[in-house]
Amino acid sequence: MHHSTKVVNMAGDSGTISYDVFISTEPAPEGICSSYDGDVHIWLSDTPAQHMISIFVQSKWVVWNPSRALRVRLADAFVYPTPCKFTGMKYVASETEFLQESKGVPKDAITLAYLIAIDAGVKGTGGSTDYLIPPVSRSNTALDKGKGREVDFEMAGIEPHFTVEEGDCAETDLDIADYRRLLAHPQISSNPAASTLDWSAHGISTVTQWTCKKDAVATAFMANSRKASEVNHHYRMLVELGSHGKPLRELHRDIRQALAQGTAVLVHGWGPEQAMKFGLEDIREYRPPLSQTIKWQDASERAKLFKMPPSARSYVNQIVEGSLHRFVLASVDPKSCWNCLDLPSLIPDIPPFLRGILDDRMAMMTTGTEAYVTAKGQATKGDCSGLNGLQLMHFDAWRSCAWDVMTHGGFLTYPHHDATGFLTYSYIRTGAKLWAYIHLDDVNEFDSNDVAAKWNAYYKHPMATETYDKNVVVGTVLLEKGAVLIQPPGVNHMVYTPVPTVMSGGHFLTYETMHLTEMALTLDFGLGKEDIQHATNALHPGTLRKVYRMVIALPTLVLEQPLFHERCIIALASIVSTDPLSFGVDEYEEGVRLKAKDALSAELAGERARALHIMGAVLVKWNITDPWNEMRKGLWRDPGPLKDISFLGLL
C-alpha cells in the first residue's frame, strides 16, 4: 500500500508528495529535513517508504499507534503524544486528556503525517519538495504565522529529553517499521503467486497466501475485516488493556471479567526477554537441538485435499515429519509453507499478569499434597494417608501448559476453536500473526441447541473453507512482539501468519469461564460431536484431570474467597458428573490409551469420586438434579450471579 499526500502551498500551487513522519531527539539523518529545530524533531522524508510515526528513545524506535495512549518521559515529566487536528500531534499530561483531546481527530498515521507536513509549512510544486522551517516554540504558545495553529511539541521550562518507561508501550522492542514490515522474505514476496495484500484496519501489507486459491480468498476476507476491538455484535469481541499503570490485582479483575463474558483480551506492554530472529542460530539457542524430529502441517499437501471428494480425504497426508533444522531453513523457500503446532516448552516465560489467573495451576498447587488413588465410594483426604500428593500424571497435563508454535510466512490456519475447553494465551517471540475472531451473526443465544446447530452448519465442510464467511461476524487482531493475547474457551478463530514466526503460549482454565469450558466440551462431544475433528485443532486428555483438581481445591479456596459465579459452579458439576468416556478423547491420536486397571486410571477415578462428593453437596444445596440440562437454560455465555459456597469448607 502506497499513499501520496497532496499538499497545497501558501500561494495555492499544488503537487503530490509522499511524507514519512518521525519524532526524534536525534539530529536528522542525511537526506531528511527537520520541520522543527532544537532538541525535538518532527522529520518529514520525501522518500516513498513508509507511513508511520516513530519516537526515537533510548537508541530505539518506538512506533506510535495514534489510536492508543503511549506514555513517554520528557525530562522529569510524563506526557502522551496525542493526535491534534491543527498540528497533527501535540503532548498532553495524562491518559484522560489523551482520550479527550483525540476525540473526533484522525488517528491514522497517514493523515497525521499530512497534518504535520502542512503545519511544518511543507509545500509541493510539480513533484519537487521545498521545506519551510518555522522557528522553534519554547513554550505552549501558538505558532500563528497567520493561521491560528497551536504548536505544542515542547513543554515550557523543560529541556526535551525522551525516555520510555519500561513496558509502557507494546512497541518498545520493535525496530524501525513500516506498513511493509510484515512482507515475507523477498524470495517469497517476489513469487508471482504471492501478491501484496493490504490490511487497512491495521495499516499493514502482507503477502497473500499463494499455495491454494481458497486460502488466498479466505485471507483476503480476513484482510477486509474490521479490528476485533471495534466489533460488539451480541457481545464484545476484544478488549485492549495496558499491563502498567494500575495495581496487578485490578488488572487480574479486568481480565477475568472480560474472559467471563466470552471476550478476548489483548494486554499491551509485555514481551519475552530473550530477543530472537527466525534463523538457525537463534532457534538453536532458544530450544536445542535442531536435529530434533518434529511434525508440521504442509499447506501445499493440504491444498491437494480439495481436489478429492470429502469422503476420500485423509488429513494425515498434510502432516510431514522432519528435523527442526529442515523446518527453519525451508522458511525462505516459496515451495514450502509449513506450520508446526504445540512444541512443548517446559521452561516458559509467563507474563506476571497471567500468574494470578491460572486457576488450574493454582488448584494443582493447593491440592498437590492430597492423594486419591481409591475408586471406591466417596473419596476423602484420609483415604490415601501415607501418600504424598499426586502419584501419576499424563504428560499432556503438563505440555498443554506451555508450548511454542513455529510457522512459515503465508500459512493460514483454518477456522477452529482451541480444543477441550481451554483458554489460551499467546505472545510473539519473532514475527507476527493475524487473528480473525469469528462470532455467529444470526443465532438465538438463549438456545444452546440453536448455537450448536449454527456452528455445526458453519463447520459442515470438513475444512471450513467453504463456509468461513457464512452467518458470521469477523474481527481481526494483529499480534506482534510486546503484547499478549488471551482468548476464552470455545472462541472460534482463524489465523494468518505473514512472516516466519515463533509464537509462545499455553492453555489454562479459570473458575470464571467454566461455563464456557462446559459449552465448548458440549459442542465437541455432545451437541456437535460429529464435527469434532475439524472444529478443533487438537485434543487434550489432561483437561479432565485439571477440572477434577479445581473442584477438589474448592473446600480450601472458599475459606478465603467464598463467592463464585453460580453457572460456573454448575458447569463444574456438569463436567464432573458426565461419564469420562463420553468425552471420547481416547478415540483419537492424543488419547491416553489407559486400561481400567492401570494405576493412573485408579488415581483419576479416585479424584473424580472426590470431585463428585464435593459437587454433590452443591447440587443438594441448590436443589439441582441434572446439571447438564441446567446449563442448557438461559444465555450460554452468562456466568451467573455470585453465590456464597462457603459451606464447602466443611467437607
Write out key terms for the chains shown.
single chain; about 650 residues; alpha+beta
What does this entry look like structurally?
- With 651 residues, the chain is of the alpha+beta class.
- Helices cover 25% and strands 24% of the residues.
- The chain is built from 18 helices and 33 strands.
- Strands 19-20-29-26-31-24-23-21-22 form a nine-stranded mixed beta sheet. Strands 4-5-3-6-7 form a five-stranded mixed beta sheet, with helices on one face.
- A hairpin with a 2-residue loop joins strand 11 and strand 12.
- Helix 13 (514-525) packs parallel to helix 16.
- The chain is globular.
- The termini are far apart.
Set out the fold topology.
Elements: E1 5-8, E2 14-17, E3 20-24, E4 33-34, E5 41-45, E6 53-57, E7 60-63, E8 72-74, E9 77-84, E10 88-92, H1 95-101, H2 109-119, E11 123-125, E12 128-130, E13 162-163, H3 186-189, E14 196-199, E15 204-207, H4 213-223, E16 226-227, E17 232-233, E18 235-236, E19 238-242, H5 248-260, E20 264-268, H6 280-286, E21 293-298, H7 299-304, E22 319-323, H8 324-329, E23 338-344, H9 352-355, H10 359-366, H11 396-399, E24 403-407, E25 411-417, E26 423-430, E27 432-440, H12 448-458, E28 472-480, E29 483-487, E30 492-497, E31 501-508, H13 514-525, H14 532-535, H15 543-557, E32 563-565, H16 566-577, H17 599-621, H18 627-631, E33 642-644
Parallel strand pairs: 3-6, 16-28, 19-20
Antiparallel strand pairs: 1-2, 3-5, 4-5, 6-7, 8-9, 8-13, 9-10, 11-12, 14-15, 17-18, 20-29, 21-22, 21-23, 23-24, 24-31, 25-30, 26-29, 26-31, 27-28, 27-30, 32-33
Helix pairs in contact: 10-15, 13-16, 15-17, 16-17
